Each structure stands twice: as C-alpha cells, then as structure tokens.
Amino acid sequence: MSAPRSVVVVGAGVTGASVAYHAARAGAVVTVVEVAVPGTGVTGDSFAWIGAAGVRTGPAAELRRSATREYRRLEAELPGLPVTWSGSLSWGAADTSPQAGPGQEIVDTATAARLEPALRRPPDWAVWAPDDGSVDPVGVVNRMITGARSHSTTMRMGAPVTAIRRDAEGRACGVETAAGFCAGDTVVLAAGVATAALAAPLGVDVPVEPSPATLFRFSAPPGLVRTVVHTADFDLRQATPSSLHAAADSAERTLAAIRSTFRAPDVDLLRSRVAARPMPADGEPIIGPVPEVPGLYLAVTHSAVTLAAAVGRAVAREVVEGTTEAVLAGCRLDRF
C-alpha cells in the first residue's frame, strides 16, 4: 500500500482552508502554513455573498454555477457551518429594464415589500434569487480548519513562507519558512495577493494584483434587512442581530442611502475596513498545476468566499486523486 500524498497549503484564508479540509478528507497528509491567524486576512473583510444565480458565461462559469450547491454539500458535511440562506433581492434605477438570469425571477412591488418589510419605497420590480445566501467568513474558515484537523492536518501559524524549495529534478518539494522547512509532494499556493511574489522566483508569472474593497459595519435593529440586498448604492446584509455589513465606496453616502432606503433612523457607522482582494488580470480564478514547476499548484481567486466550497473540492480531487476537473478547465494559468 502506497503512502498517502503529502500536501503543503500556503495560506489559511477561505480558499486555503477549503483546500486543506477537502485534501485531508480525501486522504492526504496536509500541512497548512499561515503567516497570521486563519481567516484574519482579506477573508475576514469579505462581504461574503454566496450566489450562483444569473451566471451565464465566462471562463469560470461552470465553477460559479456550482457555488451554492457546493456550500449546501459542505454544510451537510460540517454541521454548524455559519451559512444563512436568505436569498438576494436586487434592483436598479426605475428606468432600467428588468432582466433575470438562471435561478432568478422578476418580482413586483408587493413581493419586494413582503421580502423586505422595512423598505420605505419598495421598487416597482426587483430580481429575486431565492437560493442565494451569505456566510460568516471567519466562522467558515474555522469550521473547515477544525474539519481538516479531524483528519491528517498540521497547522503552522506565524510562519511566513520565504521560498518554495525545488528538488534536484526541479520539482516543488516543500516550502522554506521562518520556522523551518515543510516538505510536501505538492505545494498549493493559496496565498491571495502574495501568490505572485512567491511564484516569481521560480520563473512563474501569476497575473494577480491587489484590488481594494471597502466593507462597512453599521449598527441596526434586529431583522432590518431580511435578504442580501443589491442596489446601485450598496450591497447590504444583516450580519448579526444588531449590525449590518455593506460593500460600497463611501461611508457617508452609504449611511444616507441605507436611511433613505429602509425605515432605520438609528443606523450608524461602527467600522470601516479596506481589504486588498487578490484580483487576477481578467477577474477570473487562476487554479491548476504549473507545468513548468511540477508539484506546484495555484489557487488564487476573485470571489474567494463565494467559490471556496467548490474550489476546495475540485482542487483536492486534482491534487490528491490525480483527476482533471472539467469545472476548472477555464481557470488555468496558461490562458494568459
């Protein structure tokens, strides 16, 4: 009987945590190397909208269409996963023509008012995606890490990776860290914006740049927002019974828009955070092995929280089981 594959996962954000969980569950011996605390980087500042509705085209269309289905599968595997299946409600300017994609439907004013009772002036129409939801991203990371640890997973926290080591045949065989060497048959780079710098010394150009995104937290009464709401002014959801999360550009404009959209005079700004999302050059995930460096595998995505459940399982199948996943066909590095 052959020894199980050993996998080093660089990064314990939501993508790395999912790869670690799924690889360990598939039978690999996994080591996760993380510079800080799992989920406290850009993952923790994600708006964390989980949706597959409306996806039609793009290199990662099939992967994106599987997002909610894969989260429901993950929720069944990991009881207590902090997912809220609220649906999403979107609308634009009054003169915009309503359009619904797969998994969406156009609803009228009465239905919008029923879905969001606190609206001051329900829109004439809205796009309703009943299968959408949201997650507590740090909670999801912690639950997946716990799941990974219940299999064969070791965590190395506070250990920044300084280099990827190659053996005499040029194959990636592990990573050098400030705390020593971590060996592995495969090195999965799930390090977000740091992925490009880690791959560059190997002659691998990963076209990913930091893209700033602001997340606001507002105080709010319980149940003010029932769904994930998307308008021209904000993406908005109830994060806790007493707070809202909003993805938008300006705290002042967003606060004014919330107060004018909802009957919520007591909403106030609690916090704002700017996160550097990893943004591939074409906005689509970069996932797959690097032919020039056998043993090196990339997993860097935009919409990382949304895609995490789907990406983790697909990557684990390729890395541990040696399959070629059709869902990742449009995500390879060689498209650039």
Automatic annotation (TrEMBL):
Entries under Pfam families matching the protein: DAO
Domain FAD dependent oxidoreductase: 7-317
InterPro entries linked to this entry: FAD-dep_OxRdtase, FAD/NAD-bd_sf
Alphabetized UniProt keyword annotations: Oxidoreductase
MF term (GO), any: oxidoreductase activity
EC number: 1.-.-.-
Protein name: NAD(P)/FAD-dependent oxidoreductase
